[in-house]
Design brief:
With 267 residues, this protein is mostly beta strands. The chain has helices at residues 69-88, 128-137, and strands at residues 4-8, 19-21, 35-41, 54-58, 92-95, 100-103, 123-124, 145-156, 166-169, 179-186, 195-202, 210-212, 220-228, 239-241, 255-266. It starts with a strand and ends with a strand.
Length: 267
Protein backbone atom coordinates (compact mmCIF):
# COMPACT_ATOMS: atom_id res chain seq x y z
CA UNK A 1 0.00 0.00 0.00
CA UNK A 2 1.24 3.47 -0.92
CA UNK A 3 -0.54 6.24 0.98
CA UNK A 4 0.10 9.85 -0.07
CA UNK A 5 -0.69 13.43 0.89
CA UNK A 6 -1.83 15.78 -1.85
CA UNK A 7 -3.98 18.81 -2.59
CA UNK A 8 -7.60 18.03 -3.43
CA UNK A 9 -9.72 20.48 -5.42
CA UNK A 10 -12.39 21.48 -2.94
CA UNK A 11 -14.66 24.45 -3.70
CA UNK A 12 -15.52 27.48 -1.59
CA UNK A 13 -19.07 28.39 -0.68
CA UNK A 14 -20.31 31.28 -2.79
CA UNK A 15 -23.56 33.17 -3.37
CA UNK A 16 -23.27 32.71 -7.15
CA UNK A 17 -24.11 29.21 -8.36
CA UNK A 18 -20.95 27.61 -9.84
CA UNK A 19 -20.82 26.01 -13.27
CA UNK A 20 -18.23 24.24 -15.38
CA UNK A 21 -17.84 23.27 -19.03
CA UNK A 22 -16.70 19.99 -20.53
CA UNK A 23 -14.26 21.73 -22.86
CA UNK A 24 -14.16 25.53 -22.48
CA UNK A 25 -12.70 25.61 -18.99
CA UNK A 26 -11.75 29.26 -19.43
CA UNK A 27 -15.48 29.96 -18.99
CA UNK A 28 -15.84 27.95 -15.75
CA UNK A 29 -16.95 29.52 -12.51
CA UNK A 30 -15.60 27.07 -9.95
CA UNK A 31 -14.39 28.89 -6.81
CA UNK A 32 -11.60 26.50 -5.88
CA UNK A 33 -10.40 26.26 -2.29
CA UNK A 34 -7.88 23.38 -2.33
CA UNK A 35 -6.86 21.54 0.83
CA UNK A 36 -4.05 19.06 1.44
CA UNK A 37 -5.41 15.74 2.68
CA UNK A 38 -4.23 12.21 3.41
CA UNK A 39 -5.16 9.87 0.56
CA UNK A 40 -5.01 6.20 1.47
CA UNK A 41 -4.18 3.46 -1.00
CA UNK A 42 -7.39 1.41 -1.03
CA UNK A 43 -5.74 -1.81 -2.24
CA UNK A 44 -6.66 -4.63 0.10
CA UNK A 45 -9.12 -2.59 2.15
CA UNK A 46 -12.24 -4.29 0.81
CA UNK A 47 -14.08 -1.09 -0.09
CA UNK A 48 -17.59 -1.75 -1.39
CA UNK A 49 -20.10 -0.08 -3.70
CA UNK A 50 -22.85 0.04 -1.11
CA UNK A 51 -20.72 1.27 1.82
CA UNK A 52 -17.87 3.52 0.59
CA UNK A 53 -19.40 3.85 -2.89
CA UNK A 54 -16.52 2.33 -4.88
CA UNK A 55 -14.57 -0.88 -5.40
CA UNK A 56 -11.74 -2.28 -7.54
CA UNK A 57 -12.42 -5.22 -9.86
CA UNK A 58 -10.39 -7.34 -12.23
CA UNK A 59 -11.51 -7.07 -15.84
CA UNK A 60 -9.87 -7.85 -19.18
CA UNK A 61 -11.24 -6.44 -22.42
CA UNK A 62 -11.21 -8.12 -25.82
CA UNK A 63 -10.45 -4.69 -27.32
CA UNK A 64 -6.71 -4.40 -27.91
CA UNK A 65 -6.69 -0.58 -28.03
CA UNK A 66 -9.12 1.04 -25.59
CA UNK A 67 -8.30 4.50 -26.95
CA UNK A 68 -10.20 3.45 -30.10
CA UNK A 69 -13.58 4.90 -29.16
CA UNK A 70 -15.34 3.23 -32.08
CA UNK A 71 -14.26 -0.20 -30.82
CA UNK A 72 -15.11 0.86 -27.28
CA UNK A 73 -18.65 1.70 -28.38
CA UNK A 74 -19.06 -1.45 -30.47
CA UNK A 75 -17.46 -4.02 -28.16
CA UNK A 76 -16.35 -2.66 -24.79
CA UNK A 77 -19.74 -1.15 -23.96
CA UNK A 78 -21.25 -4.64 -23.91
CA UNK A 79 -18.35 -5.93 -21.83
CA UNK A 80 -18.96 -3.25 -19.21
CA UNK A 81 -22.69 -4.01 -19.13
CA UNK A 82 -21.86 -7.63 -18.32
CA UNK A 83 -19.30 -6.53 -15.73
CA UNK A 84 -21.87 -4.33 -13.98
CA UNK A 85 -24.35 -7.22 -13.89
CA UNK A 86 -21.70 -9.42 -12.27
CA UNK A 87 -20.55 -6.81 -9.76
CA UNK A 88 -23.98 -5.54 -8.71
CA UNK A 89 -26.27 -8.53 -9.30
CA UNK A 90 -28.72 -6.34 -11.23
CA UNK A 91 -31.16 -7.61 -13.85
CA UNK A 92 -30.60 -5.04 -16.60
CA UNK A 93 -28.04 -2.37 -17.56
CA UNK A 94 -28.63 0.68 -19.76
CA UNK A 95 -25.22 1.89 -21.00
CA UNK A 96 -24.35 5.32 -22.34
CA UNK A 97 -23.46 5.01 -26.05
CA UNK A 98 -19.82 6.09 -25.79
CA UNK A 99 -16.72 6.10 -23.60
CA UNK A 100 -14.80 9.14 -22.38
CA UNK A 101 -11.02 9.35 -22.65
CA UNK A 102 -9.11 11.68 -20.35
CA UNK A 103 -5.47 12.70 -20.54
CA UNK A 104 -3.18 14.51 -18.13
CA UNK A 105 -2.10 17.85 -19.54
CA UNK A 106 1.45 16.75 -20.37
CA UNK A 107 0.08 14.24 -22.89
CA UNK A 108 -0.84 17.16 -25.18
CA UNK A 109 -4.04 15.44 -26.29
CA UNK A 110 -6.78 17.52 -24.68
CA UNK A 111 -7.55 19.79 -27.63
CA UNK A 112 -8.13 16.80 -29.91
CA UNK A 113 -10.71 15.05 -27.73
CA UNK A 114 -14.12 15.97 -26.37
CA UNK A 115 -14.39 16.37 -22.58
CA UNK A 116 -10.87 15.03 -22.05
CA UNK A 117 -9.43 17.13 -19.20
CA UNK A 118 -8.97 15.46 -15.81
CA UNK A 119 -11.47 17.11 -13.46
CA UNK A 120 -9.22 18.72 -10.86
CA UNK A 121 -12.20 19.98 -8.87
CA UNK A 122 -14.07 17.48 -6.72
CA UNK A 123 -17.52 16.81 -8.12
CA UNK A 124 -20.33 14.27 -8.35
CA UNK A 125 -21.38 13.15 -11.83
CA UNK A 126 -25.04 14.23 -11.41
CA UNK A 127 -27.19 15.82 -8.72
CA UNK A 128 -29.72 13.55 -6.98
CA UNK A 129 -32.94 14.80 -8.59
CA UNK A 130 -31.44 14.95 -12.08
CA UNK A 131 -30.00 11.45 -11.63
CA UNK A 132 -33.39 10.08 -10.56
CA UNK A 133 -34.95 11.57 -13.70
CA UNK A 134 -32.20 10.07 -15.86
CA UNK A 135 -32.69 6.62 -14.30
CA UNK A 136 -36.43 6.85 -14.99
CA UNK A 137 -35.86 7.80 -18.65
CA UNK A 138 -33.76 4.72 -19.43
CA UNK A 139 -35.73 2.22 -17.33
CA UNK A 140 -36.69 -1.00 -19.20
CA UNK A 141 -40.18 -0.72 -20.63
CA UNK A 142 -42.86 -2.90 -19.12
CA UNK A 143 -40.83 -3.85 -16.04
CA UNK A 144 -41.58 -3.07 -12.40
CA UNK A 145 -38.37 -1.60 -10.99
CA UNK A 146 -37.49 -2.25 -7.35
CA UNK A 147 -34.16 -0.41 -7.39
CA UNK A 148 -31.92 1.54 -9.76
CA UNK A 149 -28.41 2.97 -9.53
CA UNK A 150 -25.87 4.66 -11.80
CA UNK A 151 -22.21 3.64 -11.99
CA UNK A 152 -19.01 4.89 -13.56
CA UNK A 153 -16.36 2.34 -14.59
CA UNK A 154 -12.89 3.96 -14.66
CA UNK A 155 -9.68 2.39 -15.87
CA UNK A 156 -6.10 3.55 -16.35
CA UNK A 157 -4.71 2.79 -19.79
CA UNK A 158 -1.16 4.04 -19.17
CA UNK A 159 -0.21 1.44 -16.55
CA UNK A 160 2.18 1.82 -13.63
CA UNK A 161 2.36 4.94 -11.47
CA UNK A 162 -0.26 7.49 -12.50
CA UNK A 163 0.77 11.14 -12.62
CA UNK A 164 -2.83 12.33 -12.14
CA UNK A 165 -4.79 9.57 -10.35
CA UNK A 166 -8.45 9.50 -9.44
CA UNK A 167 -9.20 10.48 -5.84
CA UNK A 168 -12.29 8.92 -4.23
CA UNK A 169 -14.15 10.33 -1.20
CA UNK A 170 -15.91 7.61 0.82
CA UNK A 171 -19.66 8.24 1.04
CA UNK A 172 -20.04 7.66 4.83
CA UNK A 173 -17.59 10.50 5.51
CA UNK A 174 -19.72 13.12 3.69
CA UNK A 175 -22.19 15.39 5.49
CA UNK A 176 -25.22 16.56 3.46
CA UNK A 177 -24.13 20.19 3.73
CA UNK A 178 -20.78 19.40 2.08
CA UNK A 179 -22.41 19.10 -1.37
CA UNK A 180 -22.56 22.42 -3.23
CA UNK A 181 -25.07 22.88 -6.05
CA UNK A 182 -23.58 23.62 -9.45
CA UNK A 183 -24.24 23.04 -13.16
CA UNK A 184 -22.32 20.83 -15.61
CA UNK A 185 -22.43 22.20 -19.16
CA UNK A 186 -21.47 20.12 -22.18
CA UNK A 187 -20.15 22.10 -25.14
CA UNK A 188 -19.36 19.48 -27.84
CA UNK A 189 -16.34 20.14 -30.06
CA UNK A 190 -18.42 19.27 -33.15
CA UNK A 191 -20.53 22.39 -32.67
CA UNK A 192 -23.65 20.59 -31.44
CA UNK A 193 -25.91 22.60 -29.11
CA UNK A 194 -24.80 22.94 -25.51
CA UNK A 195 -26.68 20.97 -22.88
CA UNK A 196 -26.29 20.36 -19.18
CA UNK A 197 -27.71 19.27 -15.86
CA UNK A 198 -27.36 19.98 -12.12
CA UNK A 199 -24.28 18.61 -10.39
CA UNK A 200 -22.42 19.03 -7.08
CA UNK A 201 -19.05 20.36 -6.04
CA UNK A 202 -17.64 19.56 -2.59
CA UNK A 203 -16.78 21.84 0.36
CA UNK A 204 -13.95 20.84 2.70
CA UNK A 205 -14.74 18.79 5.77
CA UNK A 206 -11.93 17.35 7.91
CA UNK A 207 -14.00 14.18 8.38
CA UNK A 208 -13.70 13.26 4.70
CA UNK A 209 -11.84 10.01 4.01
CA UNK A 210 -9.95 9.99 0.73
CA UNK A 211 -8.68 6.98 -1.25
CA UNK A 212 -7.05 6.05 -4.53
CA UNK A 213 -5.67 2.89 -6.14
CA UNK A 214 -1.93 2.84 -6.81
CA UNK A 215 -0.31 1.51 -9.98
CA UNK A 216 -3.44 0.30 -11.73
CA UNK A 217 -3.03 -2.17 -14.57
CA UNK A 218 -4.93 -2.67 -17.81
CA UNK A 219 -6.68 -5.65 -16.20
CA UNK A 220 -8.29 -3.58 -13.44
CA UNK A 221 -11.13 -1.10 -13.21
CA UNK A 222 -12.61 1.10 -10.50
CA UNK A 223 -16.39 0.89 -10.30
CA UNK A 224 -17.97 3.77 -8.39
CA UNK A 225 -21.53 4.83 -7.73
CA UNK A 226 -22.95 8.09 -9.04
CA UNK A 227 -26.59 7.74 -7.91
CA UNK A 228 -28.83 5.30 -6.03
CA UNK A 229 -32.56 4.84 -5.35
CA UNK A 230 -32.15 2.83 -2.11
CA UNK A 231 -31.59 5.28 0.79
CA UNK A 232 -29.94 2.52 2.88
CA UNK A 233 -27.00 2.27 0.47
CA UNK A 234 -24.22 4.68 -0.53
CA UNK A 235 -25.89 7.32 -2.70
CA UNK A 236 -23.02 8.86 -4.63
CA UNK A 237 -19.28 9.37 -4.52
CA UNK A 238 -17.43 12.67 -4.90
CA UNK A 239 -14.22 12.29 -6.88
CA UNK A 240 -11.54 14.33 -8.57
CA UNK A 241 -8.06 14.19 -10.06
CA UNK A 242 -4.97 15.08 -8.04
CA UNK A 243 -1.25 15.40 -8.74
CA UNK A 244 0.52 12.29 -7.47
CA UNK A 245 3.53 13.29 -5.31
CA UNK A 246 5.11 9.90 -6.11
CA UNK A 247 5.16 10.57 -9.86
CA UNK A 248 8.52 11.55 -11.34
CA UNK A 249 9.31 13.57 -14.43
CA UNK A 250 9.56 10.33 -16.41
CA UNK A 251 6.14 9.05 -15.31
CA UNK A 252 3.98 8.47 -18.40
CA UNK A 253 1.00 10.84 -18.68
CA UNK A 254 -2.39 9.66 -17.54
CA UNK A 255 -4.66 8.07 -20.09
CA UNK A 256 -7.97 6.86 -18.67
CA UNK A 257 -11.28 5.56 -19.98
CA UNK A 258 -14.69 6.02 -18.37
CA UNK A 259 -17.84 4.07 -19.15
CA UNK A 260 -21.20 4.79 -17.54
CA UNK A 261 -24.19 2.53 -17.02
CA UNK A 262 -27.49 2.49 -15.11
CA UNK A 263 -28.44 -0.73 -13.32
CA UNK A 264 -32.00 -1.91 -12.68
CA UNK A 265 -33.33 -4.57 -10.33
CA UNK A 266 -36.80 -5.92 -11.10
CA UNK A 267 -39.48 -6.13 -8.44
Amino acid sequence: MTDVRAEIGYSARTEQRPYFYANAHDKDFVPLKPAEVAIADARGLGCSLDREGFTLVGHKSAVADLTDLAAVSEVHRGEIAELLKQVTGCDEVAMTPFGILRFSEKAGENEAHDNSHPARFVHVDMAKEAAAEARARTAPAGKAIARSAQYNVWRSLAGGTQDVPLGLCAYPSIAPGDLLDCDAIFDPLDGSPEWGFPNYLLAYNPDHRWYYYSDMTAGEAIVFKTSESDPERAQLMPHGAFDNPLAGLDTPPRVSLEMRGTCYWYA
